[in-house]
Design goal:
Elements (H helix, E strand, L loop, with lengths): L14 E5 L5 H13 L15 E5 L10 H4 L1 E5 L6 E5 H7 L1 H10 L6 H7 L2 E3 L13 E2 L3
Parallel strand pairs: 1-2, 1-6, 2-5
Antiparallel strand pairs: 3-4
Helix pairs in contact: 1-4, 3-4
Length: 142
């Protein structure tokens, strides 16, 4: 028996739309990461980007359990002395709700150039509309 390896010309990418309203953040992010990697396809190859595009709408209506809105923090540093900043999940949902889903999904993808290529196929929008109607996205069954 031979191991099948997909060629780049054989990859067919689909577009899926996900409504994040009322969805749990971690479970939604893991499902999106699976679609972006292509693990739902029989032609999945770990060293190739065979995943599909994912559009997420209503990112501002995602839910979390427990006290994560107040206790979960996101950190960054400006590389200047005293440039350490932190923001809570609740504050980030108020100001930039798209980033919450982006950070959660990005943490579940590979940390290399392949993961960065997969992440570019994720489109997140805070409202209920998106500009990708021409791609005719299908609803993603969750």
């Amino acid at each position: 028996m031979k191991t099948y390896v997909v060629k780049a010309s054989e990859i067919q990418r689909e577009w899926y739309v996900v409504d994040a309203a009322g969805q749990n953040l971690g479970r939604l992010a893991s499902r999106i990461a699976t679609i972006l990697r292509g693990k739902h396809k029989p032609i999945y190859t770990p060293g190739m980007d065979v995943g599909d595009f994912v559009i997420v709408i209503n990112a501002d209506k995602v839910t979390v359990t427990g006290d994560k809105l107040l206790e979960k923090k996101y950190y960054r540093h400006s590389l200047y002395p005293g440039g350490f900043k932190e923001v809570t999940l609740g504050r980030l949902l108020e100001t930039h709700p798209e980033r919450v889903i982006e950070f959660a999904v990005k943490g579940m993808l590979p940390k290399n150039r392949l993961g960065r290529a997969m992440f570019k196929k994720l489109k997140v929008y805070a409202g209920g509309t998106h500009p990708h109607a021409a791609q005719k996205p299908k609803p993603l069954p969750l």
